[in-house]
TrEMBL record, chains A, B:
Its EC number is 2.6.1.83. GO terms for molecular function: L,L-diaminopimelate aminotransferase activity; pyridoxal phosphate binding. The keyword Metal-binding does not apply. The lineage of its organism: Bacteria, Bacillati, Bacillota, Negativicutes, Acidaminococcales. InterPro entries: Aminotransferase_I/II_large, DapL/ALD1, PyrdxlP-dep_Trfase, PyrdxlP-dep_Trfase_major, PyrdxlP-dep_Trfase_small. This is LL-diaminopimelate aminotransferase. It holds the Pfam family Aminotran_1_2.
Length: 400, 400
């Protein structure tokens, strides 16, 4: 008799975005005359950069001609993309070997699949509030999960606690959903904790391209010895608008070595290579050519223009909240603005207020964990016009 | 202390293709004047069909324009591709619901990742010889694996044995590496076994497009009640030359229900949906548009032309072996010809003979499992000219 995975029974159904969609559509139906502005979306809206489109168009044409057609590629990605990423990392001071970089279809897949190479006996440390994938993928393999609290007192940047023993630690900086970003000194503390405890940090750098201050690390590998205790996951989704184009990369340094429970020493880079060559067949050649263009001089320039557009939206949102005295986090090194709901409202009360009184849609912080209760996420991915109008409505609405 | 997955120590390093590459390059270096013909490759060589290239070029252009840009898509794939597949399946008599089909980046990923939704306590039944992914992915999660023997006596099509209790069963038909294909009657026996034992069949149909006889099933779901005991994995790699373009699909019927060890009844379709929405972010929009074109009337016609080209190569190979009295399997419903090495040679002896005497490269059967010893795989993916020349060399070489 085939048994199915019991751990799936422990997953909570997430109704967050379904509930939001339901409420918004019910409101829209009852009030067809009202213009609803959506600033809850965690997805980019600007098109791909021209040089990326050109590179993919060229690659598509190559696939139709026998002499340039490409079949199976290397599971870990083409050398041309590794080379582009080695150069990109060097631009912020990180030296990588080509074979420390694994091209993937996105950070979501990798931050979930990376669990494969770890023992199920590990204790997993996860921030709250959090991107739900870290939590659910570990529940699926029945692991012991503990939480660290993000809260106003620590600017939603939880720090290591020597009394807590964690084996695998998820960090996301700049953070989804709070937009907070660790400083170099804070990451040094995390690296010191991980080295002392032989822990491994899974560092999600999906929003690194939004970092505006050179003092804020764009990679955990700017920290000395981080290569001995960290895996970095990154994505082109927010860097280059690849949410529907799908490409990311994961860095597993050769220096990262841990033991099995029976004491066998393993290089995690080799384990991940084995995992990927066994369970994955690489990212489409066409997409890898697009990704290569992202990291070209012209590509970086074009992608920066889109990011600057979103950053100006974020600035407009922050300026609005400054005017009405609402406390917020993020927004500077992140497309996310994480705000404290006014007047002691709960996340969902504020959601209802924004929708019903002002016709603005955001995301209740409570959807990202219990520490998110009383907070709310707005994103900078709307159009300029809608962002300005939404903030005018909010400023006027909260003044009343 | 973070422990890594002990099961990885039980994986055998596969040197098959590395060993082949090493031997071939050493020979080529020592004999620069000799023309080596490679018929070992398991990868397509003809370019993508024109209508597929056109569809992807259009999709690439859409991604560069704000009004047609696509961000995150549904993890399980776009409705337009589901609709195309529902129609495709109907063409060989299988009725599917749209939400029974999950679009993926290929059958390799899915036949590996599908292990996630099963308990590690299951006994896994795997054919020998076999595509190594079935084996290695189950070793990675520490499962009990048993084998069923493919051999000349059963035409390399092992059948169920009532004395063997298996929970999860991998079947691949038409088979890689042997090219053998189960008849409808044989699959009915497998379905009866699975239903009787509450087992689940993981049916790899990656080569279904090579079936030439309507009496040979192209889907396990032509068998009555197979929806109660089977998951089907398929790929566009060999159907449409997508080995470097990456798209596949997995069918998990709603009727497939099994229990957890504690007795909770679960619909596997819902479990797989949860797995995919948690750990995967879908196939690139551009690629899905290409896949949609594969299943259009024009696309099917164009892809069939490439398959016909490979099938003619297979016919030439089989005709050659008929002339010299070499026994083989496959080749009819498959791009693979699985032959018995002549004169009692081992797989590697025959490899060396072909390389050194005739400058033809194939794949030693022993690389696919112990039952492959004494057998050898040639593929129909070479050019017509090379296939003809290789067979002339083999015919003349074996006559001597």
């Amino acid at each position: 008799m085939a048994f199915v995975n019991e751990n799936y029974c422990n997953l909570k159904e997430s109704f967050l975005f379904a509930d939001i969609a339901h409420k918004v559509s019910a409101y829209a139906e009852a009030h067809p005359d009202k213009k609803i502005i959506r600033l809850g979306i965690g997805d980019v809206t600007l098109p791909l950069a021209k040089c990326v489109v050109d590179a993919m168009a060229k690659a598509v044409a190559e696939m139709g001609v026998q002499s340039t057609f490409r079949g199976y590629g290397p599971e870990q990605g083409y050398d041309f993309l590794h080379a582009a990423l080695v150069k990109y990392y060097a631009s912020f001071g990180v030296t990588l070997e080509s074979d420390e970089i694994f091209i993937s279809d996105g950070a979501k897949s990798d931050c979930a699949n990376i669990t494969d190479i770890f023992s199920n006996a590990n204790t997993i440390l996860i921030p709250d509030p959090v991107y739900p994938v870290y939590l659910d993928t570990n529940i699926m393999c029945g692991r012991h999960i503990i939480y660290m609290e993000g809260k106003p007192e620590n600017d939603f940047l939880p720090m290591p606690d020597e009394n807590v023993k964690a084996d695998v630690i998820y960090l996301c900086s700049p953070n989804n959903p709070t937009g907070s970003a660790y400083t170099k000194e804070q990451l040094e503390e995390w690296v010191a904790y991980a080295l002392k405890n032989d822990a491994v940090i899974l560092y999600d750098a999906a929003y690194e391209a939004y970092v505006t201050d050179p003092a804020i690390p764009r990679s955990i590998f700017v920290i000395e010895d981080a290569k001995k205790c960290a895996i970095e996951l990154c994505s082109l989704s927010k860097t280059a608008g690849f949410t529907g184009t799908r490409c990311g990369y994961t860095v597993v340094p050769h220096a990262l070595v841990r033991k099995t429970e029976s004491g066998k020493e393993m290089e995690l880079n080799k384990m991940w290579l084995r995992r990927q060559t066994t369970k994955f067949n690489g990212v489409p050649y066409i997409i890898q050519r697009g990704a290569e263009a992202v990291f070209s001089e012209e590509g970086i320039k074009q992608c920066r223009e889109s990011i600057a557009y979103y950053q100006e939206n974020a600035r407009i949102i922050m300026e609005g909240f400054d005017k009405v005295g609402i406390k917020y986090y993020g927004g500077v090194h992140s497309p996310y603005i994480w705000l404290q709901c006014p007047d002691g409202m709960s996340s969902w009360e504020f959601f209802d207020f924004l929708l019903e009184k002002l016709q603005v849609v955001g995301t209740p912080g409570a959807g990202f964990g219990k520490m998110g209760e009383g907070f709310f996420r707005l994103t900078a991915f709307g159009s300029r016009e809608n962002t300005i109008e939404a903030m005018e409505r909010i400023i006027n609405g909260l003044k009343k």
